[in-house]
Amino acid sequence: MIEMSRADFEVLVSEALDQVPGELAALIDNVAVFVEDDAPDSDPHLLGIYEGIPLTERGHYYGGVLPDRITIYRNPTLRICETVEDVVEEVHITVVHEIAHHFGIDDARLHELGYG
């Protein structure tokens, strides 16, 4: 497992968010992004998760709700990477993957696009 501090990992997540094209970033609505060290015990290999109501499912009733949540998990990511460059790439893929869920894109389509 590669070693990387939580602070350094958070910087990579922030940089991945900064790489989202401005046109898409402007459409992200009511989402908070977090870094956690470990994935839930029920899925310890999980790299990230989107929890919320995708834009495609929000209707006129949507309002006054807590932000959706994207969580990127540090230790599972570090366990599958061999180099810092691998971590950078995996964080980017995971951030894009979870943002895509916010836009209503499912796992099957993300796998087709190379973000699985």
From TrEMBL:
<protein>
    <submittedName>
        <fullName>Metallopeptidase family protein</fullName>
    </submittedName>
</protein>
<dbReference type="InterPro" id="IPR038555">
    <property type="entry name" value="Zincin_1_sf"/>
</dbReference>
<dbReference type="Pfam" id="PF06262">
    <property type="entry name" value="Zincin_1"/>
</dbReference>
<dbReference type="InterPro" id="IPR010428">
    <property type="entry name" value="Zincin_1"/>
</dbReference>
